[in-house]
UniProtKB/TrEMBL annotation, chain A:
Domain of life: Bacteria
Organism this protein belongs to: Streptomyces yatensis
Domain Tr-type G: 20-229
SUPFAM superfamilies: EF-Tu/eEF-1alpha/eIF2-gamma C-terminal domain, P-loop containing nucleoside triphosphate hydrolases, Translation proteins
Name of the featured protein: GTP-binding protein
Record key words, sorted: GTP-binding, Nucleotide-binding
Keyword GTP-binding: yes
From TrEMBL, chain B:
Residue ranges of every copy of the Phosphoadenosine phosphosulphate reductase domain listed in the record: 26-223
GO MF term list: nucleotidyltransferase activity
Coiled-coil parts of chain: none
Cited Gene3D superfamilies: HUPs
Keyword Nucleotide-binding part of the UniProt annotation: yes
UniProt family annotation: Belongs to the PAPS reductase family. CysD subfamily.
UniProt xrefs under InterPro entries: PAPS_reduct_dom, Rossmann-like_a/b/a_fold, SO4_adenylTrfase_ssu, Sulfate_adenylyltrnsfr_sub2
Official protein name in the record: Sulfate adenylyltransferase subunit 2
Keywords assigned by UniProt, alphabetized: ATP-binding, Nucleotide-binding, Nucleotidyltransferase, Transferase
Organism: Streptomyces yatensis
Family annotation (Pfam families): PAPS_reduct
EC nos: 2.7.7.4
């Protein structure tokens, strides 16, 4: 069986995100193209770090050390694990997220990137997009990170040459097209000298755009795109449901239904120590008083007229982060908002290196580390869920083997199978 | 509420509720400092006034008098199941900041005392108020950070965390360190303390032109020059400051990698 390949990533764009004044930006790209250094430069030139953190001079690589805090990272001059720092401008709080570039550190890269809703692709102007650049772009697309800028770095080492910049920028743009990422801008910079990072540079007279920091202001994360209301019951305390709004807006008086149960009415929305609220927004963790009996932890609540899909046959896409991979037939658990779902990998449809184009042919062999795989998962029992493009928070999951081993991250493309509603 | 603070609050509350659902016997580590006191406040918010975890104080016996008073007052007020743990054996043998290096003293009186506390209580998870912006090494932490039986932090092989999804399993005999405040910065804490009216020890406010920016053992903390006498003054001061928060903490200074060594041994 083959199913059409869906466009990569998240839901449809919307005007507003969860909060307009915080933007989480991951800096991704090939090893040694200068992610940590560029990030360090942004922090230093905006006064975002305390003086004690720059304990090694800039010319000796001290900028990268602002985020590379481990002894091993400093000794061997590489980023081992993800870290973040905050930069504030007048209107926005940026959480800047550094990730490692080494292929074998994909787990740490994906951990960092999944915390972001925007990204800067860091590309050395002389080496251009390389293996990990492509892989990281694929990971961003899969995660639904769609607000992306490309920083073409080390312009000082190319004599500030316009041609170098354009060649690299064109190549990255073509790659972005192929993968399904929309680039907002490409910006030439030198992190070591600081040119065009936070202020315009006289050494780049041919560049008519704005410095990198200013282009970040144009990054608008995709909102939930009118995602339907989804509420997760986390716990029950004295008849009150502790709940999280996964998507949409919950209002007092809304009708909510859980699988196999009668609809309830939201009677009160509360936060401890605060006056009762009329509504709760995406991401809010609240107390919820419902008509009828409280629902069990892990229950997903939805409006009766926009319920999730229900089924036991799920088509998913997974980025494999397990060193020894996994194979068709394996037992698995989908950890996701609400309760964990158990099942088995019924079929590996096809899989390929995440730095490459998807192949046309099916390939049912074992899935290897850092590959993207399209799978059919057969759940032990039907469960409610959403396609990632309908509701991202519910369409994402962590794939495990049911014990401690994490197999990868995944998104839901399609839910079918027996409906026992 | 400013949306950035609401975001931080939401994310922390979600972690706290997840911990209650996924672990059988979690505990919270309270040092009476501003971060773990804020964490305790957020637990009360998450569970509507209840603190459904035992609260552990690792007492080196060298804390400020004001911290003990603060502990006793608020643990009564909030109805905490407070459990105080000291490494009595080491204290009886004379362990203290002048008897050994800071690394040895912190390890004996904090790390080893914590180890005993977790064993005694049989806890499979422990909540800590550490923040990523405190130190370059703490910035590398995960929200759920598994520790093995020997307490070690395997920083080279930290488990994946994708979006807000985390693996909650630990190996036999190990426990989970949970860090719900990792994304908070010093300024966020102070702004939230101001907004919520969270009580903190008076040591944080100026007295004779000095205040403590970070508190721990009296012998190993130096105050900073400051006239910030109120929470609002502190917010303004921290916004302007270019000095590191832990500049007054002696154990960080002994050698450059002290925090990493401490953490590798299981320090908080």
């Amino acid at each position: 069986m083959t199913t059409p390949v869906l466009p990569e990533g998240g839901p449809t764009p919307a005007a507003t995100a969860r909060d307009a004044d915080t933007l989480r930006v991951a800096f991704v790209g090939e090893v040694d193209h200068g992610k940590s250094t560029l990030l360090g430069r942004l922090l230093l030139d905006t006064g975002s770090v305390t003086t004690d953190r720059l304990d090694v001079p800039v010319e000796d690589g001290g900028l990268a050390f602002l985020l590379d805090g481990l002894t091993e990272e400093r000794a061997d001059l590489f980023t081992l694990d993800t870290a973040s720092a905050v930069l504030e401008t007048g209107s926005r709080r940026y959480v800047l997220i550094d990730v490692p570039g080494h292929a074998e550190l994909l787990v740490n890269m994906a951990t960092g990137a999944s915390r972001a809703e925007a990204a800067v692709i860091v590309v050395d102007c002389r080496e251009r997009a390389a293996e990990q650049t492509r892989r990281h772009m694929r990971v961003l697309a899969m995660m639904g990170v769609t607000a992306v800028v490309c920083a073409i770095t080390k312009m000082d080492l190319a004599g500030w040459a316009e041609a170098e910049f354009h060649t690299a920028a064109r190549q990255v743009a073509a790659l972005a097209d192929e993968i399904g990422l929309a680039l907002v801008a490409a910006v030439p910079v030198s992190a070591m000298t600081g040119d065009n990072v936070t202020a315009p540079s006289t050494r780049l007279p041919w560049y008519t755009g704005r410095p990198l920091l200013d282009t970040l202001a144009d990054l608008t994360p995709w909102g939930d795109g009118g995602a339907p209301l989804r509420v997760e019951a986390q716990d029950v305390v004295e008849g009150r449901v502790l709940a999280r709004v996964l998507s949409g807006e919950l209002r007092v008086g809304d009708r909510l239904v859980a699988p196999g149960e009668d609809a309830r009415t939201a009677l009160r929305i509360e936060r401890f120590g605060e006056p009762p609220q009329e509504s709760a927004a995406t991401g809010d963790n609240i107390g919820l008083v419902l008509s009828g009996p409280p629902c069990a932890p892990g229950t997903l609540l939805a409006p009766p007229d926009r319920r999730p899909l229900r089924g036991d046959r799920w088509r998913v896409r997974v980025l494999c982060t397990a060193e020894d991979g996994f194979a068709e037939g394996a037992r698995c658990t989908l950890r996701r908002a609400g309760a964990d779902l158990t099942g088995r990998i019924a079929r590996v449809e096809r899989h390929w290196d995440s730095a490459r184009r998807a192949p046309d042919a099916t390939d049912r062999g074992p899935v290897r580390f850092s590959e993207v795989a399209e799978l059919t998962v057969l759940l032990d029992r039907p469960a409610d869920g959403d396609d990632v493009r309908v509701c991202a928070p519910l369409g994402r999951f962590m794939l495990t083997d049911g014990s401690v081993r994490i197999l990868g991250l995944g998104i839901v493309d399609q839910i079918a199978g027996e409906d026992r509603r | 509420m400013p949306s950035a603070l609401r975001d931080l609050e939401n994310d922390t509350v979600q972690v706290l509720r997840e911990v209650r659902g996924r672990f059988t016997n979690p505990a919270l580590l309270w040092s009476m400092g501003k971060d773990s006191t804020t964490l305790l406040w957020l637990v009360r918010k998450a569970f509507f006034g209840d603190v459904p975890f035992p609260v552990i104080h690792i007492d080196t016996s060298y804390k400020f008098r004001q911290m003990y008073e603060f502990r006793d007052r608020w643990s009564r007020e909030w109805g905490l199941d407070l459990r105080v743990h000291r490494n009595e054996k080491a204290l009886a043998a004379g362990m203290g900041p002048t008897a050994a290096t800071k690394l040895e003293c912190c390890t004996a009186l904090k790390t080893n005392a914590l180890q005993e506390a977790l064993e005694t209580g049989g806890h499979d998870a422990v909540l800590l108020g550490i923040r990523g912006d405190e130190h370059g090494v703490r910035a590398k932490e995960r929200v759920f950070s598994p520790r093995d039986r020997s307490f070690g932090w395997d920083y080279r092989n930290q488990p994946a965390e994708f979006w807000d999804l985390r693996q909650a399993a630990v190996d036999e005999g190990g426990h989970m360190r949970v860090h719900p405040m990792l994304s908070w910065r010093e300024i966020d804490i102070w702004e939230y303390v101001r907004q919520e009216g969270i009580p903190v020890p008076d040591l944080y406010f100026a007295n004779d032109g000095n205040r403590y920016r970070s508190i721990g053992c009296e012998c190993c903390c130096s105050p900073v020059r400051s006239d910030a006498g109120t929470v609002t003054d502190v917010v303004i001061e921290v916004r302007r400051s270019r000095e590191g928060e832990r500049a007054g903490r002696a154990q960080d200074k002994e050698d450059a990698a002290a925090m990493e060594k401490l953490r590798a041994l299981g320090y908080m």
